[in-house]
Amino acid sequence: MAEHGALVLLAAAIALLCGCAGPPSSAEPDYRRLAAKDPRTLAADYLQQRAGKPLLLVGAGDIALCRDGQEKYAEATARLIEALPEALVFTAGDNAYQDGTWAEFIDCYDRSWGRKGIKERTLPAPGNHDYGNRRKPHEAGAYFNYFGAAAANADTEGRGYYSLDLGAWHIVSLNSDIEMRYARERGLAAEAKALLAGEVVRQREWLQADLAAALRSGTRCILGIWHHPRFTSARRGDNAPTAKLWDLLSAAGADVVITGHEHIYENFAPRDRSGAPAGGGMREFVVGTGGAGGGSAWTAVNFHYGVLKLTLGADAYAWEFLAVRGDTLSDKGSASCNRKRGT
After folding, report:
1. Which domains does the chain have, with CATH numbers?
2. Half-sphere exposure of 229 toward its Cβ, with a 13 Å CA cutoff?
3. How many CB atoms are closer than 10 A to CB 122?
4. Chain center to CA of 305
5. CB 66 within 8 A of CB 101
6. Most confidently modeled range among 35-44, 132-141, 227-236, 238-247
7. Contact indicator for 160, 152 with CB cutoff of 8 Å
8. From 28's CA, which of 69, 243, 299, 339 has a CA 20 to 30 Å away?
């Protein structure tokens, strides 16, 4: 549906949200809100600890799948993160498979990426599996309860997106799943569709205002993180519903976008809004290599497990893909940040 149609539905969505936008509901008795630092506090504490030292960000998407022996891969990538205790950790969605239940977070994710020494420095993002196969438009209860305050800024709780400043960098972590479901999910009831339309518009308006504020404050580099890649060579192809997120970042002169969803690693040279290679465009990393194999690779040779490490400088960045033991994939490089384009 065109954006105008989404705006028309927004009025209905706001009415529906009234009285139902509280904490995510829980069907399981052991949900609990866990103590955690919100992203901005976590970033501020990290900057204080790393004064005068390089700022590091490490992570991946598509992480904890505990069946058919797959858990060993999330364990292997967790060990890579443990070898970098000086880095903040990001996730690019699909944290716990298959349905993002509380049991899957506790019995699977918690034993690898959720253990002490990693979880308390993690900046998460949600993916489609975090909402599960029986998901509702506004619920990913286990995800939000598991990560607690780390999953949102104070004004975005329960919606799966937030921002923070890390030195010269402004980082936005977004919820691409609402964009994808609004565009592609069939059979939604009118009430659910209107609710989802409101969430889509709310995130876009929030992102536009957030980026404008960052540019006014003089940020020099911008990084976006979400789950579904805007562009990918995986067999499922590009994800056009995320185009608005890409376009808003592109208009701000953003530098890097990190995604997952496809269980492969890709590094695309900077692209413009249409996807054409362009100087001053955004570099996209697809890093669906956190531990859950299978799915979207063309052949077995495309399967890799590992994490992406970013070193964030004052006006530049460097990247390196760190593969698990026995994997030969290697990718590293560096680039300058784009000249920002104003508000």
Report:
1. 3-18+38-336 (3.60.21.10)
2. 33
3. 21
4. 18
5. no
6. 238-247
7. yes
8. 69
